[in-house]
Task: inverse folding
């Protein structure tokens, strides 16, 4: 039917940064952060925990669960916006680390929706090249892209990686359908500068540092509205009732966004997987980390209907349905 997830894996940096720790960096409090976001702590990468390294470890765990060797991987797609280099791609570094000599590799850039977009690309690829196996990875070290003096943003983000192994199966399971969107006209509500876009005077580059900038309240409103629209559109298209969903794994950005979304959808709270309290917003890594935790906790049984959804800079957003 579509791309089936054979194995999941995740990797979180060792170092924890609590809300109390953040109170020493900016004027904030555990009470403010937890009540506005649901976040208690997040992980911060150290040296040796670059995005490609976290992604590689997550990928190894996913391959171990899938019981496949690295030589069997044909394609590696990495969703990230915080690789240590712009070129080569993070995916090429993962390929090198794994020694995945039979795979080609590339990155997907869709901010917090990156994993969902990469999963969709992997699914579409496998529908054409059915005898291949793919690694889809979401990995971020947003601590390197955060302004640690800006209390509006620095409390939100964390580092980590998650990965899945995909294979096409002629069975009634796998990715059922996706409903993905972008709206570049709203780019300036959530963005991060890259290197200078032009240099007509051919001046030597100075590096002002690229940090995430955000209009939090606007992002909040669009996130709820957009994910709700994407999910309802998908359910109508596939003729599926919300009560048929066994587990929902949303992008873990903020507990208040998720609670609003859940109440508007009318899905039971206990069917929604939430771990934002432990890791904060890990952008493209949040869904595959949550998916791996849910899987390892036994929250997913063969035949279950899984709903995943995301929202991020771009804006980019969407929802996908998977039969486990
Ligand atoms: O993948 C999508 C990524 N983005 C998001 O998920 C962000 C979505 N937005 C949000 O989660 C919320 O807008 C925030 C959590 C970022 C902010 O919550 P809010 O309820 O929208 O607060 P606000 O920005 O309206 O700020 C309220 C007050 C302000 O003070 P005044 O102007 O009322 O005196 C802020 O200066 O809270 C202040 N404030 C803080 N106070 C303590 C802002 N950040 C902090 C902080 N600690 N960290």
Result:
């Amino acid at each position: 039917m579509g791309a089936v997830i054979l194995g999941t894996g995740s990797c979180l940096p060792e170092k924890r940064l609590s809300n109390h720790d953040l109170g020493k960096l900016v004027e904030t409090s555990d009470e403010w952060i937890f009540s506005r976001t649901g976040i208690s702590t997040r992980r911060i990468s150290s040296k040796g925990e670059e995005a490609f390294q976290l992604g590689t470890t997550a990928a190894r765990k996913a391959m171990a669960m899938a019981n496949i060797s690295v030589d069997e991987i044909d394609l590696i797609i990495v969703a990230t916006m915080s690789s240590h280099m712009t070129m080569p791609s993070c995916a090429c570094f993962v390929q090198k680390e794994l020694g995945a000599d039979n795979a080609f590799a590339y990155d997907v850039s869709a901010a917090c929706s990156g994993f969902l977009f990469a999963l969709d690309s992997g699914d579409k690829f496998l529908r054409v090249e059915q005898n291949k196996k793919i690694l889809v990875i979401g990995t971020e070290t947003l601590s390197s892209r955060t302004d640690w003096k800006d209390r509006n943003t620095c409390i939100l983000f964390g580092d980590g990686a998650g990965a899945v192994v995909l294979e096409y199966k002629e069975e009634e399971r796998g990715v059922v359908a996706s409903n993905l969107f972008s709206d570049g006209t709203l780019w300036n509500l959530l963005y991060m500068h890259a290197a200078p876009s032009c240099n007509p005077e051919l001046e030597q580059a100075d590096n002002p540092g690229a940090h995430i900038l955000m209009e939090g309240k606007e992002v909040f409103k669009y996130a709820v509205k957009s994910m709700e629209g994407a999910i309802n559109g998908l359910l109508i298209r596939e003729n599926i009732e919300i009560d048929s969903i066994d587990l929902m794994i949303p992008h873990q950005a903020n507990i208040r966004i998720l609670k609003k979304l859940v109440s508007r959808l009318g899905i039971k709270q206990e069917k929604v997987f939430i771990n934002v309290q432990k890791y904060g917003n890990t952008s493209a890594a949040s869904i595959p980390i949550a998916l791996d935790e849910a899987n390892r906790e036994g929250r997913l049984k063969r035949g279950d209907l899984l709903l995943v959804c995301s929202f991020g800079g771009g804006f980019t957003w969407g929802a996908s349905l998977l039969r486990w």
